[in-house]
Amino acid sequence: MKITGLKTFVANVSRTNFVFVKLYTDDGIDGVGEATLEWKTMTVVSALEELERVLIGKDPFQVDHLIETMHRDSYWRTGAVFRTALGGIEAALLDIKGKALGVPVFELLGGKYRDRVACYANHWFFGAVTPEQYATNARNAVAMGYNALKWDPFDVADLEMDRGQRRKTIEIVEAVRAAVGPDVDLMLDVHGRLNVPTAIAMCRELAPFDLRWIEEPTPPESIDALADVRANSPVPIAAGERWFEPGKFLEAINKKAVDILQPDVSHCGGMGETKRIAHMAHIQYLPIAPHNPVGPVMNAMTLHASLAIPNFSVFETVSVDVPWRKELVRETLEFENGSILAPTAPGLGVELIEEACAKFPYEATNVPLFDGSMNTGGVASGVAVMKGSEH
Questions:
Q1: 107-347+378-384 is classed in which CATH architecture?
Q2: Strand 116-122 with 339-341, pairing
Q3: Which tens digits make up the pLDDT trace of 48-76?
Q4: pTM value?
Q5: Per-residue pLDDT at 387 exceeds 70
Q6: 258, 240 in Cβ contact below 8 A?
Q7: Other residues' Cβ atoms within 10 Å of the Cβ of residue 323
Q8: pLDDT of res. 239
Q9: Which residues are catalytic?
Q10: CA 121 → CA 173, 331, 337, distances in Å?
Q11: Distance from first CA to last CA of the chain, Å, rounded?
Q12: What residues contact 53, with CB distance under 8 A and at least 6 apart?
C-alpha cells in the first residue's frame, strides 16, 4: 500500500475554522485527521500541503518513521503550526492502518486501559452574561448528563483584575456552584491571562467553591511563573494546551508547576507524542486531562489516546456547538452517564463528509479573550453535541 494524495478541508464553525486532512492510498483506503489550530487556519493548511510531497509514495503503515522523519527534516522542528500539522497527518496514517487491519486506533497505541472515559463539558456557558444565566446553563448541562463543567469566568482580564472584575468572577462561580450542588466538578480556565500575584490572589479567593482545578492561570511561556502560582495556590493547577514539545512538559513536571497536565493531541504532534508525554507524567503519578475543545475528528483522536494511557483523568468535550457540526462527519459514539464508551469501529471510527465542508467556507475570526466575547463564542444559538447515545 502506498500514499497517493493529501487533501485539506476547512469548515467554518463561527468561533473558529475546523481543519481536516485526508490521506489517500492506492488500495482505496483513506484516512482522516484533524489539524485545527484556532485562529491560524490558513497557516496550518499551508503546512499540511507542504508535507504532501514528502508523503506521496510512502507506506502509511510506517507511522512513527514517517512522523519522526518529517519532524527531523523540518529543520525548525517545533511550533504550534508544524506540530499541529504532524498531529493531523499522524491521525490520518493511523486511521488508514486501523481500517486496513480491522482494529480501532487505540489498539495500535498499545490497547485500551479502560472501557469508557469520564467527560466534562465545555462551551455549555455560551450566551450567558449574568450569574443567573450561567446558573441556568449549568443546570442544563447537568441535565444533559455531565458531572463536570469547565468555563472561563474571568471576563476581560489582562494580567490584572480590578475589584469589580474580581467580584463579578466570584459571583458567577458562586452562582454555578449553588446551581449544580456539591457533587459536580467545576474547573475554571483563565487562558493564561493573569500575572503571578493576581493569579495567586484569585486562586485563594475561589478556593471556597471546591474547584477541581484552575487552568493556565499565567501565560504559557514561563514554567517558573506557573510553579510560583502552584506553590501558593490552594486549588490544583492544570496546564499544557499551549506547550508543544515533550521537553516543555518535562520541565513542568520537574519544576512541580502543575497538578494536571493537558497536552493537546494535535498541537503536541499526535497521539504517539501524547502517549510519551503521559508516560513521563506517570513516572511522577501526575494525571493527564487532554485539551480537546474543537472538532469531531479531533474528538476521536483524543478519545483513542485517552483510552490508551494509564494516567488518564477526564475527557474534555464540546457540549454545545453550531447546528451543522454533525453534517461534517459520520460518527457513532455512545454517551452514557457522563462518559463516552470505547468505540469498536476500525480506525478512528469517524468519516469526513468532504462535500459538506464546502457549504461552510473559511471565515476569519478573532481571538475572543480580551474583548468580552468569550462567553458567546459565536454559537449562542448552537445545539447539544452530546445527547443520549448519539454524538
A1: Alpha-Beta Barrel (3.20)
A2: antiparallel
A3: 999 999 999 999 999 999 999 999 999 98
A4: 0.94
A5: no
A6: yes
A7: 10
A8: 98
A9: 191, 291
A10: 15, 19, 13
A11: 32
A12: none
Give, in order, the Cα–Cα distances in Å from 378 to each of 115, 137, 220, 323, 368.
34, 16, 25, 12, 10
Which set of grid coordinates corresponds to residue 219? 501565560
CATH class in words for 3-104: alpha beta
Dist CA 305 CA 328 (whole Å): 22
Distances in whole angstroms, Cα of residue 145 to Cα of each of 228, 298, 334: 36, 22, 12
- Residue appearing with cell numbers 450566551: 127
Q: Where are the beta strands (DSSP E) in 237-346?
A: 237-239, 260-261, 315-318, 320-321, 329-331, 335-336, 339-341
Count of C-beta atoms within a 10 Å radius of residue 205: 15
* C-alpha cell recorded at residue 11: 469548515
Predicted local distance difference test score (pLDDT) of residue 380: 46
Longest dimension (CA), the chain: 63
Q: How many CB atoms are closer than 10 A to CB 33?
A: 30
Q: Indicate the domain borders of the chain.
A: 3-104, 107-347+378-384
Q: How far, in Å, are 22, 64, 79, 366 from residue 270 at the CA level?
A: 15, 10, 13, 26
